[in-house]
Protein 1
Amino acid sequence: MTKESSKQKLANLIQSYEQAVKSAQSLYDDEDLKKWAIDQSLNCQEKIKEVKKKLKDTFSLDYDSADAKNKIIKEGSEVEVLVNHMDGMKGSSAIIKGYSLPANISDIRMKDGMKMNNHKWLTNDEVKLK
């Protein structure tokens, strides 16, 4: 496995835990689940810290730094689409809006100008950072 691939997979893991935190926090208003949801959220937040440390220790990359935006795909990144799921998709631009295993959720502006919001099925291998 290449180091670039491993960096991205660690970033994906962080984003997955971030989604789990958001999901757990959405349960806070259910009194029957609140304590359990808080425990889950705290556990995932600890996992996020562990993976960020691993990313920094192994690749000298601080996930929260501005420099990380040029090295890993995360929410808000602008990418070029490398696949042609639909005519005109390959070579188009997209903004990553969120992450949902196994794919990114993104807004895509096709080469012909058509825009698709919240497109769900672009994996990291199907895009590259701009």
Protein 2
Amino acid sequence: MNKTLDNAAIFVTTYIVFMLPTYVLPYLRTSPASLHGLDDAGANVFSFTFFIHLASMILLCWVCLVRGAMVGKNWLFLLPVVAFAFEFISKLSVIPYIPTMYHILAIIVGATSANISVPDKLTRYSND
């Protein structure tokens, strides 16, 4: 999987595939922001869709961690971590568009960053 994320197009596609559930599942009332009424009888906090939402966010962090290591930007995983915080912390989740901005920023930085190994190959061939 590490070699797969070496390609920027595959990184963007993978990121978008794992990002889509974070936008679809809140409409099914899986986000913690929709769980403010936990006093209601029978509120199911740990639903299956909630865990899919949580797993999607964790996978986004892992994808950025791997891609960040490849492009020499180890801080890249912090962008989906901030989006994660703004989705799952109830006081922060009421602020609109912050997770979206951080997702877009992660995609742009991850896709436009050059791999570390590319300059090494270029200098090796230019010395011959």
